[in-house]
Design goal:
- It is a single chain.
- By secondary structure, the chain is mainly α.
- The protein is built from 10 helices and 2 strands, in the order ααβαααβααααα.
- It has a two-stranded parallel sheet.
- The longest helix has 41 residues.
């Protein structure tokens, strides 16, 4: 091995170590914010619990001390996840920023607040679907045959199982815009694979709703609309990207 090749290998090793060190530091920063938000959620857990409790006309029961601990940790964890999303998004953006063009940096940075708002919007939509549609449907099946009793543990696990998928799926338009900006996907790719995407979204709708066709349809339609919005937003980003590339080529007299 020549001295030059050895120097190149050393530089690569140093760059790899530097990237891993930077990634570790950014993960530590994210973890610190997660802990801070978790503590805040833990302090206000009674207020958070009351907020979720006020929309249901049911008495929630605790059958073991561990359920009390679970509700504290789950409510605090939910606050921590919501609060940490902008921080995690920024740290990821800052980590990949050196590999982006100035246009990609500016465009992708603007996605961070939208990412947070869409996540909140998904949680709200999922919560409305849960409280207004899913729970009334399930309770209507009782028809006075049973004494209805919900434990805190089972109720909130079911609630989170419904709302969190909506929160993640509401990020779909933004993710497609970001990937289009980076050139990973195109609007044509999304359009050609529409039927597969519909199938996946319908399966998700079936998994997070009770076995009732009307409810599954009510849930699946917004998810399909989200996918169509994603295609539309991807086209907008793609066209802007093409115009900027054409302008750059014209300015530099590139044929």
């Amino acid at each position: 091995m020549t001295e030059y090749q050895q120097q190149v290998n050393n530089d690569k090793d140093m760059n790899l170590v530097g990237h891993l060190s930077e990634l570790r530091n950014r993960l530590i920063i994210t973890a610190v914010f997660f802990i801070v938000f978790f503590i805040v959620g833990f302090i206000f857990v009674e207020d958070i619990y009351s907020f979720f409790r006020k929309d249901i006309d049911l008495e929630l029961t605790v059958i073991s001390p561990t359920e009390i601990i679970w509700i504290y940790f789950s409510m605090a964890g939910l606050v921590a996840i919501i609060g940490t999303i902008p921080v995690l998004s920024y740290e990821i953006w800052a980590f990949i920023k050196p590999g982006l063009t100035p246009y990609e940096r500016k465009a992708s940075l603007s996605y961070i607040p939208a990412l947070f708002l869409l996540f909140i919007g998904g949680l709200v939509f999922g919560y409305i679907v849960f409280v207004k549609l899913i729970m009334p449907f399930l309770l209507s099946l009782n028809d006075g045959m049973f004494n209805v009793m919900f434990t805190v543990d089972r109720y909130f696990k079911f609630l989170l199982r419904v709302t969190l998928p909506f929160a993640l799926l509401f990020e779909l338009p933004l993710i497609t815009m970001f990937l289009t900006t980076l050139g990973v996907i195109t609007p044509d790719f999304l359009s050609k694979n529409r039927k597969y995407a519909y199938f996946i979204l319908i399966v998700i709708g079936v998994l997070i709703t009770p076995p009732d066709f009307v409810l599954q349809l009510v849930v699946a339609i917004p998810l399909i609309i989200l996918y169509e919005i994603s295609i539309y937003m991807s086209r907008i980003v793609y066209r802007k990207k093409l115009r900027k590339n054409e302008a750059f080529m014209q300015e530099n007299n590139i044929s």
